[in-house]
Amino acid sequence: MTIRTRRERERAEREQLIITAARELAEAEGWDAVTTRRLAAEIEYSQPVLYSHFKGKDAIMAAVAVEGFAELAAGLREARAAVTGPRETLAAVGGAYTAFARRRPALYDAMFTHHVGLPFATPEAPAALREAFGELLRAVEPVAGADGAPDLLTETYWAGLHGLVTLMRSGRLPEEAHERRLALLNARFAGGG
Amino acid sequence: MTIRTRRERERAEREQLIITAARELAEAEGWDAVTTRRLAAEIEYSQPVLYSHFKGKDAIMAAVAVEGFAELAAGLREARAAVTGPRETLAAVGGAYTAFARRRPALYDAMFTHHVGLPFATPEAPAALREAFGELLRAVEPVAGADGAPDLLTETYWAGLHGLVTLMRSGRLPEEAHERRLALLNARFAGGG
DNA sequence: GTGAAATTCTAGCACCGCTAGACCTTCTGT
DNA sequence: ACAGAAGGTCTAGCGGTGCTAGAATTTCAC
Predict the structure, then answer these.
(1) Which segment of the chain is annotated as a signal peptide (chains A, B) (predicted)?
(2) What is the pLDDT of residue B191?
(3) pTM: predicted TM-score of the whole model, two decimal places
């Protein structure tokens, strides 16, 4: 048995190595630079081993995305814990969300922009993803007012954050006014229904 | 002279042919299907003629995007003209925006998602683009309240719309609740500052 | 009609994601 | 201890991509 478990452990380690290499390469040079050849060279194996771990490049991106969800969820939770009051909470969580997107743009792309076949608004969605949404939900709920649909309101607020960061990152919105736009979004959502 | 002008006219016609073919192919099968070979076959010329008109594939997408800006601006203007009252105007324009994004997803991608090197929030931006933003601005201004920064508020509202449509189109938000989310967004922005 | 100029095409480069089949290592049964 | 089976990894290659150099063709000016 022990020899088999060692094999399995080594294999799991190599899988993590692939994910980490893909993530670091993407963060350093963007996803366009993450080619299967390049990635194989990075982990010092040949291309086909990638396909013995993942179905294809998209599956590797999806694995990276799942790591990102966990990191985002942790960041949001931390931000929420650091403040009190509904308005402050919304501002802290919204700020943490956009800060994450700006700090880890490639990671954010894999999570929320690239067409990677991950289930989202279903129970089958990755736990880390559901947790990240839960953090947003807990920040939005106190300011939901009489809407009676905190889930939908959270989705809408999330869309606002997502729009801000994606439009900014693609050069469609100027960077320098980001904080002011975020403040406007928060004011509109914290104002009550 | 007349022979030269005929040449120039024919050349302009062929350029438009390229743009139209690219757009139709993208709308029918997505941008992944728009390869330079496929596009060349569509216009019944060889690949290199594409490069005598455009610097590369991105430039073709940019040209398609500019057409899209004009169409979007027209749609928003029409929607705004059909109603009266600030809340109704915002709902009409927001609805027209998301309807456009859902009706012409590939076009919308070229305009607002793909990294195409078009200037946005500057005077050098395409006229049609500035006009489309102007339509949004005229819809948001009446509900701006005391914010005193209608430009930034419009950008923020735009981000909300953009987030809704992109997250929905990538399967991150379920389609069926779109109208309710849009209504929530509108309510938050029409509520006054 | 002929040489010059402009235009279009053929052919190919370097790269992409992905995979079949050869190769080598490791384990198993006698 | 050793032959054969099983498993893992590699080399080499497929069909595709965006893009371009240089040949071939057409059109022009004289």
Answers:
(1) none
(2) 78
(3) 0.95
